[in-house]
Amino acid sequence: xxxxxxxxxxxxxxxxxxxxxxxxxxxxxxxxxxxxxxxxxxxxxxxxxxxxxxxxxxxxxxxxxxxxxxxxxxxxxxxxxxxxxxxxxxxxxxxxxxxxxxxxxxxxxxxxxxxxxxxxxxxxxxxxxxxxxxxxxxxxxxxxxxxxxxxxxxxxxxxxxxxxxxxxxxxxxxxxxxxxxxxxxxxxxxxxxxxxxxxxxxxxxxxxxxxxxxxxxxxxxxxxxxxxxxxxxxxxxxxxxxxxxxxxxxxxxxxxxxxxxxxxxxxxxxxxxxxxxxxxxxxxxxxxxxxxxxxxxxxxxxxxxxxxxxxxxxx
Length: 315
Hints:
- By secondary structure, the protein is α+β, with helices and mostly antiparallel strands.
- The protein is built from ten helices and ten strands.
- It has helices at 3-18, 21-27, 34-46, 57-66, 79-102, 142-155, 172-190, 240-253, 267-286, 305-314, and strands spanning 111-117, 121-128, 135-138, 158-165, 199-206, 209-216, 222-226, 233-234, 237-238, 256-263.
- The strands form three sheets. Strands 1-2-4-3 form a four-stranded mixed beta sheet, sandwiched between helices.
- A hairpin with a 3-residue loop joins strand 1 (111-117) and strand 2.
- The longest helix has 24 residues, at 79-102.
- The relative contact order is 0.11.
- Pathway: Amino-acid biosynthesis; L-histidine biosynthesis; L-histidine from 5-phospho-alpha-D-ribose 1-diphosphate: step 6/9.
- It is an enzyme of class 4 (lyase).
- Pfam families: IGPD (PF00475).
- Keywords: Amino-acid biosynthesis, Cytoplasm, Histidine biosynthesis, Lyase.
């Protein structure tokens, strides 16, 4: 492995740890990710050049400092560390699965466990689309847990979510990143989506509040979000974070999601009708359609993001 290859491998580890190229750029003090995108392309081009110098020392120091790594971290081979970490992670996931079963979360059916660790949050989501609505939630954000419980119960989805986040700053990273990991889990659990209904919708009232949620498990991420909350806080929870949650979920589950709060004066009621309706709509969308007989519910023959990318490239 030449220096450029080593630097590229370690650079990609930093991107994975940060959560995205944009978040890595932010952590290292860049206003946007363009410079790091160029660096990635340059390292890829130099991968076959034995004389390539890779990342210059000043930039390496900035990356290492931004991600709290020791000086010279980029110049070391971390493959053995990765193998050890993978073994530890496998053991931890097995323990998580056992704990999920003990909590009543079934591992039969479309069951997945997804973990995502960054400098801001450490999250594990276990999800079963063919569950009975059982849940165990430990996030440090009580009102979000109350909303996620609605999704599990009304969606008949077994859900186990644990998160340790930087709540000493605020709830933002925790709420957004839970949306991201839940989206990743949904995507994995759905697989190729053969035989599912694909579309789901629900209207849910709660006293004076009424919300409508419509879902298309299309393989194309898109969010239309129309909620005019009557106050900014529910308890200590910032209602603006709900939109961040749904953005994370949509972008990583690859679904199209329309959310409309049609009426409501009580912000708690507004939020609860949205999450109940989301759970009901998701339940409808992920259910198997016996008339589909294992077919993909699309004239394209696929609902994967790869087909969406190919379509975008043709335009």
